Amino acid sequence: MELNDLTKKLRFRKYFYTIPMDKERWQLRTGGQISTLSGRSVADLIPLILPLLDGDHTIKEIISSLSDRVDQKVVLQVLDILNKKRFLEDASQEPSFEISDEELKRYVQQIIFFSHTCDDKYERQDDLKKAKILIIGLGQIGTEVLWSLASSGIGKITGVDSGVIEGKDKNTNPFYTKEDIGKPKCEAAITTIQKLNSYVLLEGIRKEIKSTQDVEDLIPEGCNLVIVCMDHPAVSIYDWVNEACLQKSIPWMRGSLDEQIGVIGPLIIPYQTACYECYKLRRESNLSLHAEEIAFENYLKDNPDNKVEYGTVIPFVKIVANFMALEALKFLSQFDFPVTCGSILQINLYTLEYTISKILKLPRCPVCGKGRKMPAEEIWNL
CATH classification of 131-379 is 3.40.50.2300, yes or no? Predict the structure, then answer.
């Protein structure tokens, strides 16, 4: 924020504590940021200037109010120090996009958080409001991801699942009631969450995915991110989503719960990061039980309906789902760089120990690299 306009109204950000240390030092701090302002002139001016930084006074009015006690240059210097350390915000700032007062109230804590990372605190919320995402899988993890992202104000979310709600789903998922048993998961989850936040557009599609083309057909126009949420291993679906998203240049990420291990990522940016095939090939080259793992993956491909019930506890599901939602929010609003971009995060949910493994691209990956099969017209463009 620039202070060259004296008509600008300034507000001291409300989430900072102001603590006098002694006659020549003041501490200004929030959870992760501590700043000490020292010097007699600064220390003397802080208690005078803070009451005027209430959003109702322009810079010119602040200078005028203190003119009989403090030189104008000193006032401007102190304001400049506070501004550079991000203690001040423009009180006249309004959203540059269409959003109702009720929506602003709903997302107020999130907007305050965004103000830590950029001058325009509404900009990040605008990014979320414009975003369109596709969630594949509305089991325990997928429903939690759907709820978390809908609560954050994503503009449009399409949820896909082929299953129906069973008694066990009602017992492990707070979104379902006894009356929902037998209903399609995509219908019940979307209907319930839509009632909880009517400001987002939700769509449910009941479909069993059996090919890359199925995934391509499901990806909505203008989609920003595809999220695959699996309560069980789903090797074929990951392959199909990977190929479809590469074809359409749509970023995608996955998450799953494998007994006590939560797996989030990689978040794949087509042709920029390693794709899922790159990850699989590198992983397979380092397996200690290579033959066993390959046999397991082939079995899953041949028997997609044979799903073993590992069992879990609700906090495990919520941890994985909310890590996924957080990474999605980072990517969509750019308030921080997703740690799973081109990397895979694994969490031992017993010990809460985690590892982050970088996935490097394979130069001749058969899916995303120069080794992929291409139609003749593409080859001429290389």
Answer: no
